[in-house]
Design a protein that fits this description.
The chain is an alpha+beta fold and 118 residues long. The protein has 4 helices and 4 strands; from the N terminus they run αββααβαβ. It has a 4-stranded mixed β-sheet, with helices on both faces.
């Protein structure tokens, strides 16, 4: 197998990091928490949407637009490990639970969460 095909195969077999990330306002005691099956891809997509003024959370979008990206930090809070059972592919429930745990923890630290859009 040539090197290019080998790299392609390796890329397809690589599982993305999944977990929880946070967008924290430096000006307000407020944050946005999201669970995702692809941390790097989702964080990059979120930055693009925020910078384009198209994020679905209108409250976060308004603060981002008004204050500027330099007044926010984006970081990974927690990684969810893949199950040793290779047949497991749906981690939706585990991610939702992990997000709830982090939201509760942040609220106990008096951090306000951006409301979920209904």
């Amino acid at each position: 197998m040539d090197r290019k095909k080998e790299l392609k195969l390796q890329y397809k077999q690589t599982k993305p990091d999944m977990g929880i990330f946070i967008i924290r306002s430096k000006e307000k005691n407020k944050c946005y928490v999201e669970a995702t099956k692809d941390l790097r891809g989702r964080i990059n997509g979120t930055k693009v949407r925020l910078n384009a003024g198209m994020h679905p959370n209108k409250e976060l979008q308004k603060d981002w637009t008004d204050s500027g990206s330099e007044n926010f930090t984006i970081e990974i809070l927690d990684n969810l490990q893949y199950d040793k059972d290779e047949s497991k592919t749906d981690y939706t429930e585990e991610l939702a639970l992990l997000q709830m745990i982090w939201e509760e923890k942040l609220q106990k630290e008096n951090m306000e969460l951006y409301r979920k859009n209904m």
